[in-house]
């Protein structure tokens, strides 16, 4: 008996809400838009907090007494190591050169494409989008 009473309350409350919305569509639209805006602002605040609270990444320290030839070899080895790490990694990571950013601007080094297949797929998608834009 109690479950039937709850069902009837739910039905009558739903009908009352529908009748109120039909009588006042402007207030319903206003509340709906306010709810969406509040959700977007809350999401933006949480995203900013997440990005700003992350500790800055430090580049690895290099020995200061290396010749230019040694530095070139070191860079080649680092690129090979990075390429190998990217091809072996399972999680997507984006690499942004830290030299182009200041030490305190919060730039993150993450690689978007974890494999050559994903990179190729992204390039094909960009090509399709370009062709579609040209058609339109």
TrEMBL record:
Its main location: membrane. It is a single-pass membrane protein. The keyword Transmembrane helix applies. Residues 55-86 are annotated as: Disordered. Residues 68-81 have a biased composition (Acidic residues). Keywords: Membrane, Transmembrane, Transmembrane helix. Residues 7-136 form the EVA1 domain. It holds the Pfam family FAM176. The keyword Protein biosynthesis does not apply. It is found in: Membrane. The chain crosses the membrane at residues 28-49. InterPro entries: EVA1_A/B (IPR052461), EVA1_dom (IPR039500). GO terms for cellular component: membrane. Belongs to the EVA1 family. This is EVA1B protein. It comes from Piprites chloris.
């Amino acid at each position: 008996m109690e479950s039937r009473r709850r069902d009837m309350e739910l039905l009558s409350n739903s009908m009352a809400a529908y009748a109120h919305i039909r009588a006042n569509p402007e207030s319903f639209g206003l509340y709906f838009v306010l709810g969406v805006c509040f959700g977007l602002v809350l999401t933006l605040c949480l995203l900013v907090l997440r990005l700003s609270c992350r500790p800055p990444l430090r580049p690895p320290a290099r020995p200061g007494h290396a010749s230019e030839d040694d530095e070139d070899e070191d860079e080649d080895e680092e690129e090979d190591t990075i390429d190998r790490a990217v091809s072996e990694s399972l999680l997507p990571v984006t690499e942004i050169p830290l030299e182009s950013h200041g030490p305190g601007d919060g730039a993150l080094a993450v690689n978007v494409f974890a494999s050559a297949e994903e990179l190729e797929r992204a390039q094909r998608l960009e090509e399709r989008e370009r062709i579609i834009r040209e058609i339109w």
